[in-house]
Design goal:
Elements (H helix, E strand, L loop, with lengths): L2 H6 L8 E3 L5 H9 L3 H4 L6 H18 L5 H22 L17 H4 L8 H20 L4 H15 L9 E3 H4 L6
Antiparallel strand pairs: 1-2
Helix pairs in contact: 4-5, 4-7, 5-7, 5-8, 7-8
Length: 181
């Protein structure tokens, strides 16, 4: 290889996990200047109720589809809610608004909520909902091992990213390495 091709190649880490670095002083001042409309709605009146309404609507939807048994409808409700929750709170980074100079571009919504504080009432509620849904779906599937395994994997996929040990932790094969963005 010649020197020209070596300079154009970017060296990547082989690690699957990496820690998102802390914000610079510029990003912190941008975050403090304007309220984060992307994450503040979770503390608004009625924001908690939408999760319960969504779960009930999903259960009704899967129950009225002909040929789907009660066991399967509970598992589909669980998987659909968990997938949507993961996508909304842990997969998407940044905010859809352009008024804060990119202050939240490297944070997902869970990390933006409550200014990154852990175990606030909202975060406790959002951690409790998937656990209660898992318990309900496990009960209504009569503790069948196959349904239990599927529901448990969905639960772990949503609960583990919410834990403090996972704060700013990224899995590069799922979300891409930061050098590629």
């Amino acid at each position: 290889m010649n020197d020209g091709s070596r300079k154009s190649r970017r060296r990547r880490s082989s690690s699957l996990l990496y820690q998102e670095p802390q914000e610079s002083m510029e990003h912190l001042s941008d975050q403090a200047a304007i309220p984060n409309l992307n994450a503040n709605w979770v503390n608004a009146k009625g924001a908690w109720a939408i999760h319960i309404v969504l779960i009930i609507a999903l259960k009704i939807f899967f129950s009225i589809i002909p040929g789907i048994q009660r066991d399967t409808s509970w598992t589909l409700t669980n998987i659909t809610y968990m997938f949507g929750s993961y996508l909304m709170f842990h997969w998407v980074r940044g905010i859809p608004f352009e008024f804060n100079a990119g202050a939240y571009d490297n944070l997902n919504m869970w990390e933006q909520m409550d200014n990154g504080d852990q175990f606030t009432p909202t975060k406790k509620f959002l951690l409790t909902v998937p656990i209660c849904l898992f318990l309900a779906s496990t009960h209504y599937t009569h503790y069948d091992l196959t349904y239990f395994t599927i529901n448990m994997m969905a639960l772990m996929g949503v609960v583990v990213p919410k834990l403090p040990v996972s704060h700013r932790l990224r899995v590069s094969f799922l979300s891409g390495h930061p050098d590629d963005r």
